[in-house]
């Protein structure tokens, strides 16, 4: 159990279970991209540990790059808009694997995928460690999902609460 600021979190997915599942996902990617050289696009900050552990089990040739997604309010009518920061490489004709920590409403990845598609990649697959199916509000194909979880707030293994708690080897849930 850990307490961060005003909130208490209890163990939810163990470090061992995460590592076992990541090895399975990596094996799937190794098979499906055996004759390709994908560009792995890691969405910071939350996916940093997932991406690092996944990468260690990839035996294919691949490139790895990192982006951030910034939210800003463009106009009142368009609401929050996402901007991709840090994508300097050309992605035209590339096979992309976008690596995320968690898909909740799906709004972030929905927009990110749209913006990446506009740059002409040859394919885009999404790998997310966690997925909350009941929170999803957008039609979004997820190709590699670590764990489907219920709609509760989780923390650790890259995921934060108010900037804190990313540095735990397992995932915790709000008590
Ligand atoms: P979306 O709702 O757009 O799918 O998710 C946006 C972002 O919200 C995720 O990338 C993640 O940073 C954050 N998020 C969603 N659910 C959780 C959660 O349960 N715990 C934490 N720490 N962050 C979450
Ligand atoms: Mg994220
Ligand atoms: Mg966060």
UniProtKB/TrEMBL annotation:
GO CC field: cytosol
Pathway this chain belongs to: Purine metabolism; IMP biosynthesis via salvage pathway; IMP from hypoxanthine: step 1/1
Pfam families: Pribosyltran
Domain Phosphoribosyltransferase: 16-161
Signal peptide residues on this chain, from the entry's feature table: none
UniProt keywords, alphabetically: Cytoplasm, Glycosyltransferase, Magnesium, Metal-binding, Nucleotide-binding, Purine salvage, Transferase
Family: Belongs to the purine/pyrimidine phosphoribosyltransferase family.
PANTHER family in alphabetical order: HYPOXANTHINE PHOSPHORIBOSYLTRANSFERASE, HYPOXANTHINE-GUANINE PHOSPHORIBOSYLTRANSFERASE
This protein's name: Hypoxanthine phosphoribosyltransferase
Species in which this protein is naturally found: Spirosoma agri
């Amino acid at each position: 159990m850990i307490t961060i600021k005003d909130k208490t979190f209890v163990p939810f997915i163990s470090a061992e279970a995460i590592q076992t599942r990541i090895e399975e996902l990596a094996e799937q990617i190794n098979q499906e991209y055996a004759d390709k050289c994908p560009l792995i696009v890691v969405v910071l900050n939350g996916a940093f540990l997932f991406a690092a552990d996944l990468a260690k089990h990839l035996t294919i040739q691949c490139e790895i790059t990192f982006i951030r997604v910034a939210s800003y309010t463009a106009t009142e009518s368009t609401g929050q808009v996402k901007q991709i920061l840090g994508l300097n490489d050309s992605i035209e004709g590339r096979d992309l694997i976008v690596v995320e920590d968690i898909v909740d409403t799906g709004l972030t990845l929905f927009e990110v995928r749209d913006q990446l598609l506009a740059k002409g990649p040859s394919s885009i697959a999404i790998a997310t460690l966690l997925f909350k199916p009941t929170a999803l509000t957008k039609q979004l194909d997820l190709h590699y999902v670590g764990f489907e979880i219920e709609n509760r707030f989780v923390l650790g293994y890259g995921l934060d609460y108010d900037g804190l708690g990313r540095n735990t080897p397992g995932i915790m849930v709000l008590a």
